[in-house]
Fold:
Amino acid sequence: MLRTNAVAGLTVALLMPLAAQQKLAPFVTSPQPIIDRMLEIANLRPGETLYDLGCGDGRILVSAVKNFRAKAVGVEVSEQLAQRANANLHTQGIEGQAKVIQADMMSVDVGGAQVVSLYLPTEANDLLRPKLEKELKPGARVVSLDFKVRGWKPARVEKIEAHHRPYTVYLYEMPQQ
Ligand SMILES: C[S@@+](CC[C@H](N)C(=O)[O-])C[C@H]1O[C@@H](n2cnc3c(N)ncnc32)[C@H](O)[C@@H]1O
Structure:
């Protein structure tokens, strides 16, 4: 009995970190002019798919669909924010072109993305980097606001001011093999 309980306990302990949803960043919105510039820098084209990892209230998804005629997928760990993002898509009438997945971004396959947008601390980008390298197709672009992806060489770095604050946009391209 004791042994059975010990094995069950160990199994739960081993599975917990896999199932746990980690909060990698607080919710801070990107200003609208910065969002549009990020998507321009990423050269998001009509019909392409953008993934916003940590999509907050979904404003990047709305911009991708409405201003760039792209498709968009948001991944958001917070249930409340995912609901807000879904409501945003509904209000904007773009549920056919965009969706929100309420999950830890580390558990969602991003292989369908031509463009990935990030607004996450450098340490979160460190965690994501091997996943992006494994799943993204050659030629996919990653656009990151304010935080580098360490170990990658940016194709472009642009400094922009919005709301009296400087921002930096980093663009990365997945190498052609
Ligand atoms: C800095 S905000 C960026 C919001 C939006 N992308 C923007 O630029 O306006 C980061 C978002 O990532 C979400 N987040 C944090 N950890 C996450 C995780 N492990 N998986 C999915 N989303 C996460 C937060 O809840 C927050 O909404």
Q: What stands out?
A: Residues 22-25, 27-30, 52, 54-56, 59-60, 75-78, 81, 104-105, 119 surround S-adenosylmethionine (CB under 6 Å). Residues 114 and 145 are 17 Å apart (CA to CA). The beta strands are 49-53, 71-76, 98-102, 115-118, 141-145, 156-162, 165-173. Confidence is low (pLDDT under 50) at residues 1-19.
